[in-house]
From TrEMBL:
Gene Ontology terms, MF aspect: aminoacyl-tRNA deacylase activity; lyase activity
Organism: Staphylococcus kloosii
InterPro entries: Prolyl-tRNA_editing_YbaK/EbsC, YbaK/aa-tRNA-synt-asso_dom_sf, YbaK/aa-tRNA-synth-assoc-dom
NCBIfam families: YbaK_EbsC
Sequence similarity: Belongs to the prolyl-tRNA editing family. YbaK/EbsC subfamily.
Organism taxonomic ancestry: Bacteria, Bacillati, Bacillota, Bacilli, Bacillales
Primary enzyme class: lyase
Family matches, as PANTHER family: CYS-TRNA(PRO)_CYS-TRNA(CYS) DEACYLASE YBAK (PTHR30411:SF0), CYTOPLASMIC PROTEIN (PTHR30411)
Biological process, per Gene Ontology: translation
Protein name: Cys-tRNA(Pro)/Cys-tRNA(Cys) deacylase
Keywords: Lyase, Protein biosynthesis
UniProt domain YbaK/aminoacyl-tRNA synthetase-associated: residue ranges: 34-146
Enzyme nomenclature, EC number: 4.2.-.-
Length: 158
């Protein structure tokens, strides 16, 4: 079956990084990560969400954490060497990243931002992240994700 390629997929293919695309039906309402994990048929501990935060100067930082976990905002700011961070307002997400809520991938944003992946990913061979569009999850080796996202593993969850 042919599918439309997203920026994330094109970047992975150009870098010769193996990934597996998992497509699922989307509805008009927002689906949380645990629901997506259930639909894709994997334990939620393998599915990671991408959060975009900004500092007071509107500089963005990317945090990738397990879907059932909560970002520790204080630890996130400390990790990014910032005084304080806040979630990027939803209405600016597509303009800043090129992605929409529920389809925000840590790979292939409009520009590269400092990226941090929770260190729990290091304990897993593969993780699932958004493929860059709602209804698409990419299964990728966790080390490959850290490499291609130019990310740093850090303790960033509560």
């Amino acid at each position: 079956m042919k599918h439309k390629k997203t920026n994330a997929m094109r970047i992975l293919e150009k870098a010769n990084i193996d990934y597996e695309l998992n497509k699922y039906e989307v509805t008009n309402k927002h689906m949380d990560g645990a629901t997506v994990a259930q639909i894709v048929g994997v334990d939620a501990k393998f599915v990671y969400k991408t959060l975009v935060l900004e500092n007071a100067q509107h500089e963005c930082f990317i945090f990738v954490i397990p879907v059932e976990e909560t970002l520790n905002m204080k630890q996130a700011a400390h990790t990014a060497q910032q005084k304080k961070l806040a979630l990027l307002p939803l209405e600016r997400l597509k303009q800043v990243t090129g992605y929409v809520r529920g389809g925000c991938s840590p790979i292939g944003m409009k520009k590269h931002f400092p990226t941090y992946i929770d260190e729990s990913a290091l304990q897993l061979q593969n993780v699932y992240v958004s493929g860059g569009e709602r209804g698409m999850q990419i299964k990728i080796n966790s080390q490959d994700l850290i490499y291609i996202a130019e990310a740093e593993a850090a303790n960033i969850i509560e």
